[in-house]
Amino acid sequence: MGTPNFVLKLREKIGHDPLWLVGITAYVQDRNGRILLGRRSDTGEWALVYGINEPGEEAADTVIREVREETGVDVIPKTLACVKSSKLMLTYANGDQTQYMDHLFICELRDGGNSVPFVGDEESLQVGWFDAEALPEPLAKTTVERLAYIREFEKNSRNGDNRALFAHDL
Prior knowledge:
Elements lengths: L4 H10 L4 E10 L6 E6 L5 E2 L1 E4 L6 H13 L3 E11 L4 E2 L5 E13 L14 E7 L10 H18 L6 E2 L4
Parallel strand pairs: 1-7, 5-9
Antiparallel strand pairs: 1-4, 2-3, 2-8, 5-7, 6-7
């Protein structure tokens, strides 16, 4: 889908100045435990599916929409694993500056939905299921970080703490 229209309209007013956005990331495993990844057309890196929350859109709906748009796979968000605000200011090739608050969801395949991934839009070059021990390269730094959050969340859950991971400066 590319850059959402609301961001393009904001950019007409603020130019390349920093813009704070809410993002989602989907961690999806198939019934064989493989992870859904897409090779991004902008960087060539493999990454979890992620996207920008539209104004007024529920975060869970954003997850469903983004996974379907980018991979054709139908999912149901089951757990919010992590909420993290990036301290990194991203500067895109066109000069736009952006920071994100990311909501990382663990998703399941939707019963009766599509589970065969295909490139659904211009944001991806390839999509597919990958064994956690044999992930493709190059893997996006943000995906490496988010996979570590998933491992931490799952470890905590096994120990009885299934709360989402949050950061704070206290």
